[in-house]
Amino acid sequence: MKGPAPFPLRWGLIALLGVLLLAAGWTVSRVAFDDSLESMIPEGGALRSSLRLLNAAQISGKVIVWVQRDPRQTPDDVFFQSLDNFAQSLSSPLISRVITAQNMFPSKEDLGFFMTSAPQLLRPADYEIVERKLTDESISNALKNIRREMLSPQSLVSAEIFRRDPLGVRAMALKPLERLGEALGYQIAIQGGHFTSEDGSSAMIVLETPAAIMDHARSQALLDFLNERMRALPSGMKAGVICGHLHTLSNQAVIKRDIGVAGFMSAGALLVLFFLLFRDLRAALIFAIPPACILPALAFVTLLGFTPALIVIGLTGLIAGIAVDYGIHAFLAVAHRLEREAPMAAIRRIRAPLLTSAATTIAAFLAFMFSSAPGYRQLGLLAAATLILALALSLWLLPLLLGERRIKTAALAPNVFGWTAKKGPLVLVIFTVFFLAALLLASRVTVESDFSRLDGTAPAIKQYEDDFFRQWGAGMKDMGIFAVWAPQLEDALAANDLAYAHMTDRGLSNAWQSWSAVWPSQAIRKNNAKRWTEFWSARQEPLRDAFRRLGAAQGFSETAFDPFMNSIFEGAEAGPAPQGRRFFDQLAAPYVRSNEYGHMALSYFPETPPVQAALQNMPELPASSAVVSRSKLRELFASGMTREIRRLAFLGLLGIALAAGAILRNLRALLLLAITAAGAIAGALALLALTGQRLNASGMMALVLVIGLTLDYAVFKIEALLGRQPFLEQGILLSWLTTMAGALPLLAAHHPALFSFGLTLSGGLACGFFIALWVLEPAARALGLGKEKAHA
Amino acid sequence: MSQSLIDPAAPPESTGLRRRLHSRVRKDAAFWLISRRLMVLLIFTGLSVPSFSDGASDNTDLSRALAAWQENLRQVTSVSSRFVQEKKMALFRDTLRMEGRMTADHAGHFAWEVFSPMRYKLLVNGDQISQWDEETDRVQVLSRGKNPVVGAIYEQMSAWLSGSFTTLTNTYNARLLGSNPIAIEFSPLESSAMRSYIHTIVLRLRDDAQYLSRIEIVDASGDETSISFLDTQLNPVIDPAFWTRVRP
């Protein structure tokens, strides 16, 4: 195209782009964003399956309201009455159940159920204790205890219990229930019908909600409702909430805030660049390219079935920083075109380096497409689509819109380029020293294996949770989970019994919290019941006689213990697990559940060496089983992410090398590219070491990008060295400045994933840029690449 | 007795001794006792279930009687009374009769002493509950928070003895049996777990309506308990050391 673009073509293209943007905007506006970090975890691996198992096993959807009081202002009666009123005020479709100590307690029938089931629940070892209770001396002492107990106020209600179980034999079935609570590590007291801290200064109310943790709208409505109710508490009392919903909303708020702040800072920096370096209003078109590309690319990603992850959206500022580079180069090419040269002709002269640069960057992003983490694939696709569109708009639409009129640009500090040419050996020595130092520092960087550190929840919320767990105990928070599952509940329970027996054989029954201790499988209960029947068949009448004989001496009536003696064989038939027993179900909930795995039995354990050793020797179980623990998750995460990033780095580098090699077709040029990339990575890692940061999943992703972006600078520098387009060096500076305008604001991000990305990227880009700017020329000369310049 | 009479600096039992006693009690406590404690705890869970009864509010005479009693109790900051407790129980051949003294104050202290047929004392001092009996001569020191059964019992006794109508009307239906002297019968609400254990409780006031004269309890199994209060002293000065000594 030699003349200016025909008027209808220009406006036709603009109209087409407008329609495309509207359609893309409409598509994106209908999408619900995913603000979890789960999309950054590789699918199909042990890590993902462990996390899936953990999700299936964890009690989610519960909300804890922690109410604290100033004892000087709020005496006990006011405190407990206010708690009652507060619990009553929590009537909402968003709250399905309010759990206080009052309604968590078993009824007489609930306890009666366990005591009645004692024949099925007492194990062989328990009969040694029972046998000791049956001597005359023990019976006599028990009767004395009962008589003495009648002196105390609690005798008002305990007499009937003594009649039904004078020796506490059936009550032995309740012992595992007590242990269950004790070993979980919570420090809870019960006062005034409420769960309270041991010092009574605070109370806890647990809520069940149908609002899913990931459901933002309902999570927000739930928290608004609770906040309103908590504000109504009397002065001298304050309340807060502990729940996953807060994490969801906080992460979302933090990411949104970061996107806003980073976007504002990036826009500000780009505006400053615009006013300082471009003296032509048409330069605004350059900055219109990224948003005009990102929106359709996002719509494209969405149409392919991805749910856009907010963490990926947070990186669009950076993608914009890359996408704007092509426009800058095209703009400069048009600005520096020869006299009477058409804009399109000027563009044709930079097409090769621009394509090389875009190909290397896109290749780096496309490597993400081979990731097994959907978030990485999404990022790769979004970035590649954006860059392809940006390249197309820069090469074909921008020149049309710029028109024929000459463009004036500011001089771009020409002194920064080329000064190293005369001091080549010195520069190379300095570079080598810095490179080696960076490598040394980089070797000290460790990989962050704790995925939870990428949780961007506000520090105040985390601190509040820490305070909560400090007061109430960690509970099951830090315990490992052993899960067995099978299509049939009894099969899962049978496997659970075997695991429990394995642990009790090793003296670990107190550490190993298992439902098997409370309610074993039907097969075990049948055996237990048979043992009970055999035991009592021979002892029933002698015991009746003993009660009469020894009781008479202490004033007990002849029929005092008939309720016990006449129902001695009650409960000696083992049926299936009870249905619809509220207390039973409440107790079982953390230990037995039905989910996508079928029926799952869970045991909890502290990660101590003896338990770990016993786990290693766990016998083969007749059901599927898995161990999920923090240490194992860390291990899986570290190894999984390292493996993933190695694969991506290899594929990325391969793609970049192929793309660059195909276009440059010069081995020495490829070597220069490798020097740039290696220097940039070493620099980025050295910065992490110097700032005391670990390399996390987000930083690893940034490293791959560093390679793609810094190779752009190298490609343009090599093109400039080869004498093809000297003004390309100006493009490198502008492109670096605009990319840094996108990366540096991420250092103000509160979300650790975004911050880490920004830090790693900024460090890598800074090193890559300075290598391209100052090291490549002497290095090229040393490699003899300068000779080609003469031929060029 | 006002709160100022309680000397916060009064020497408690030494921490070491308490710990040893506590440890010993924990070690010696019979297995069945622990489980029974769990059971009794659960019995009391319905005591403060906040379901409101219309019974009291609909009955003007009852409301007036309760209001009068509460007004009288407002002047009472401490109380000490001899009691005679009689229990007619299926467990025993004969009526079990015991005599003792009950002492309480508004600072949260409560003592239940039995002098015959055997000496026994229960002492509630803030979060700490101590029990002693002469037969074993052992002191059990328990935390009210950690042993909610005893805490719940204390709360319930406290409601009866101090006329805590919120607790009572939240848990029971109330009926005025007589107004001179005042006698009120409480029966657990249908929603209350107490219904499984208590049939009725009758609180009888003295002629001057200043305090209780008698409590009569019929439990769900038909056992009957009556507690008669004699020589009741209102607002006596109580030696602060009294609340720290469980062993006579």
Q: Main attributes?
A:
heterodimer, A: 792 residues, alpha+beta, Multidrug efflux transporter AcrB transmembrane fold, 4 domains, six-stranded antiparallel sheet, 31 helices, 62% helix, disordered C terminus, B: 248 residues, outer membrane lipoprotein receptor (LolB), chain A, globular
User: How would you name the oligomeric state of the polypeptide chains in this document?
Assistant: heterodimer
How many beta-strand runs of chain B? 11
Strand fraction of chain A: 5-15%
Helix share, percent of chain B: 25-40%
Query: What is the CATH superfamily classification of the largest domain in chain A?
Result: Multidrug efflux transporter AcrB transmembrane domain
First-to-last CA distance of chain A: 26 Å
Question: How is this fold's topology laid out?
Answer:
The complex is a heterodimer of chains A (792) and B (248).
Chain A: H1 7-29, H2 46-57, E1 62-69, H3 76-88, E2 97-99, H4 101-104, H5 108-116, H6 118-121, H7 126-133, H8 136-149, H9 155-164, H10 175-183, E3 189-191, E4 194-196, E5 202-208, H11 216-231, E6 237-242, H12 244-277, H13 284-303, H14 310-313, H15 316-335, H16 343-368, H17 374-402, H18 424-442, H19 459-472, E7 480-486, H20 489-505, H21 522-537, H22 540-553, H23 562-565, H24 582-588, E8 592-595, E9 598-605, H25 609-616, E10 624-628, H26 630-664, H27 667-690, H28 697-721, H29 728-743, H30 752-782, H31 786-791
Chain B: H1 15-28, H2 31-43, H3 55-58, H4 60-74, E1 78-88, E2 96-105, E3 109-116, E4 120-125, E5 128-133, E6 138-143, H5 148-162, H6 165-171, E7 172-179, E8 182-188, E9 198-205, E10 212-219, E11 224-234
Antiparallel strand pairs in B: 1-2, 1-11, 2-3, 3-4, 4-5, 5-6, 7-8, 8-9, 9-10, 10-11
